[in-house]
Specification:
homotetramer; 0% strand; mainly alpha; I/LWEQ domain
């Protein structure tokens, strides 16, 4: 009994962390300093110079939102949280809570391959934590809700490897050709989740 | 089943984000630096120079509080959260979590029309997300609580367009005449909500 | 029905804000910069120079903890949250969320009477919000739990005026004689609450 | 009745604080500034210079995660929260919310014994709060759940003194020989908890 966690407290703790990360991301965008305080042209120009930061923020916002959705989806199928699930979840939270740093580095050095590698690596590790959590649940089926469709859970696990670490590392690889390819993949991964899920949802509700 | 979200977790996640944003706003107000550490006159003068920042903080605080109230009001009428509601809610959270940035820009450059345009644009997009969420719910009535008065929900939706994006863009337009007009509208919008609601509340409780 | 708030969401929103403020306070204490990186003497000396900041942080931490306790105590007696309670609670959250700023100013200028006036004024306004919330509840008894002892609620309301705004303004007044008197009162107010409550608790449990 | 706290609100408040602290830790890691924006070599070199900060962040992340686990474990056995438990819990939150500061100091001055003493002292005080909370519960058995095994609770209390304050102070002592010894102990303490618990969990589930 001492080794079983209260599901609602683990969810509340995780939700708190996701909510804070998604909100902290905007703090990395600093107000620009211009000398002529009343020049609308200078301020507009300075703000437009922050475009890479806005894009980085947008990508990370949707990425964390998708992490939340995936987290929600997995935890809905979990009946009981043991030490293994707790610490694999903590690993996921570790990499997720780190996202503001590579996001800030990418915003400051958008054209630098080192910042693309860093961003892709952290995201791969975050996505890998999801895969490990799912793998653990497949091994310990007793922790899953009885209603869980094990077949589709296994398929989802394979997909989470493909559209997770594999996709992010592909983005890093393409970034060596041109940074824009990497940005496209990094933004494409969360968008893929958003739209693939909405489509399924619509077809179900028809 | 995989496409339905736990309402309590979505609410907790949203509440977390609202709570963090409303609290982060004050971090944009930095302690002033004065050379004579013990001069009360110098410190008072330096603090009074932060007045535009205090006003910006006050406006944003009440704006986020009103967003919370509107969010609470809509979600009380929602029975089930599907993918569509989730992502329109995420869009609302996206713009809301961005508020600290235009607030900080407005606090640093209160007389600059570019900062007024930025603030009004972000607020319009935030308010537009509310309108889109309501529009989606009108189209998918099955997601609303049975007790919902559809007639008044439709009226509320039209009002949310008028006292939301339309009002904010009007504020931006008047800001071209004088910044004070824009500030008046930006502060007036949340205050309108606070007092119009309190009045209704009083009349009901009589 | 549209004018009644979900008590659990208002509590969760308020708890989120209290938790964030109490945690943000430490961010105002910056790591000191010393040139000789390995000199333990220099670092110890630089850290000891942060003593006024540590004391300011400690005072504000216990103050927010006491605010939480008082908030918890009042809300336990509230049956239903109407618009009036919500906005008086928002007023309390407004001043509470502002606390990190006067705390930082006090930490930077501990001997400056202007920073003592600012701190005392913000705390008085915060404490006044508690008083107004209690006054509103006395006027609208129907919103209180049936089990509430109205006599002791009225006494508590008078005490909240005395040990709140009156005590803080007294602290400000004594600060004109010497800053230490103000610090003593500012720290004494939350400590009074901590120990007076613990004592009552002990006598009840005997 | 006025002296009994709602367990769910105290847990939510504590969870909020833990979630924020664990997330704020990453904010102490600042994006490095390099002059040649496109040099991958320069950026990689600058990032690798942040290694002590990454290690400090990692240690503090796992430490706060372990604090959460211990907090969860103790609170699962608590039936009723009185003033004593509340304020001993507040003491624990006080030291825990302070962790970002010694972590930042350790990250900036990893080789300076003063920063090791500061880190170890704060952690000892945090761990001591756990011990005091447990001691209080042993004295006031009536506040514990009936199902609590008092014998193992007493053993756990002694262990919490040994693997808490005693271990941290030992780490500080060894740090006078070489900083690496201190780092080893500081990282070893949370890792010990992670693995000792996982092992117990596995043996139970076999």
């Amino acid at each position: 009994m001492n080794n079983i966690f209260s599901k609602s407290r683990v969810e509340a703790f995780s939700d708190g962390i996701f909510a804070i990360i998604i909100t902290l991301l905007v703090l990395e965008i600093k107000v620009p300093h211009i000398s002529e305080h009343h020049s609308a042209q200078n301020l507009s120009y300075a703000l437009s110079g922050l475009l890479p930061k806005f894009i980085g923020w947008l990508i990370s916002f949707f990425t964390v939102a998708v992490i939340w959705v995936n987290h929600h989806r997995i935890f809905k199928q979990i009946k009981q949280i043991d030490q293994g699930i707790f610490w694999l979840n903590a690993l996921l939270l570790l990499w997720t809570s780190f996202i503001p740093f590579p996001t800030a580095v990418l915003g400051d050095y958008p054209g630098n391959i080192a910042s693309i590698v860093l961003y892709g690596a952290v995201m791969s590790l975050m996505a890998l934590s999801f895969f490990l959590l799912r793998l653990y649940l497949i091994r310990k089926k007793g922790l899953l809700e009885e209603s869980t469709d094990l077949m589709s859970f296994r398929t989802g696990t394979m997909y989470s490897l493909l559209f997770g670490p594999v996709a992010y590392l592909t983005g890093v690889g393409l970034g060596f050709i041109h940074p824009y390819f990497a940005f496209g993949i990094f933004l494409g991964i969360p968008l893929y989740f958003v739209f693939s899920q909405s489509r399924t949802s619509s077809s179900v509700n028809h």
